[in-house]
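Milestone M4 deliverable, item 7.
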Amino acid sequence: MSKSLTLLLGAAALTLSSTARAEAPMNVVASFSILGDMVEEVGGEHVDVTTLVGPDGDAHVFSPSPTDARAVGEADLFVVNGLHFEGWLDRLVEASGYEGPIVVASQGIDALSFDEERTAHDHGHEGHGHDHDTGHDHDHDHDHDHSHGDDHGPEDPHAWQDLQNGKQYVENIRDALVEADPAHAADYRDNAGQYIEAIDALDAKVHQRIGEIPEANRVLITNHDAFGYFANAYGLDVLSPVGLSTAAEPSAADMAKLIEQIQKRDVKALFLENMTSPALLEQLADETGVAIGGTLYAGALASDGEASTYLGMFKHNVDKLTQALDD
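Output delivered:
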């Protein structure tokens, strides 16, 4: 091979290498699986997503490892839920040395305080919807003491359980990707637009299907109180053995009150959560005779199958609810 040809091939290889580096996907870290899926939907081929709390993982009790700190430290973008959902966030960022943008996916959402949710659930469906004033303190006599070691603030962080809030998450992720990588802004906007259309279509379907359940049957009982936004958006009442955190433990009085409510309301089914122990719900089933109607996904996606995506998770949950409660 001639020297000139060798130089030419070398220059071509260098050009290809530079192009490959230029087209390398953006390194994005998401705090938990639902956000990870949203980032992948909006970012498409332009992002490489690392999820800290993976499928079936419980962000409430997550303890970041040195590997997690390293992943965050090397990220171009870090996407978190906010609303005090990631109680370990500040420690992780400090340990990682990360100084890049932190995208709070829930920014702009009209967050529900836990007291507002409980008031709505205790007094029927008058409180359902999005017209809540979260700026006031409440002093209500709740069914449960929800201070059992919760690391959350006064607001419910599970905002993605209302698909309209999910749209806000997607818009915030889109805007952050556009700002971080303007060269692919059109793709991010197109992907987000299609995703939002799918969210709107599913939202309408969820309203329709939940609306077909007899109103007296629309009582949702799960391991912990992660479905407040879902209940307020789609017209259900929520009861649970503990509050917002899966790390909480119910007292005997809590359990007795819940059993009384289950019997009084003639509850049709109890629902497990994929990321929590079934022990509490199994105890309730034994003591009330109410069957377990299946597993719902609240704060983590499934490892595979339909519930392994955000929209698939919603479809799965609604299918389980309607099958168990619509009689």
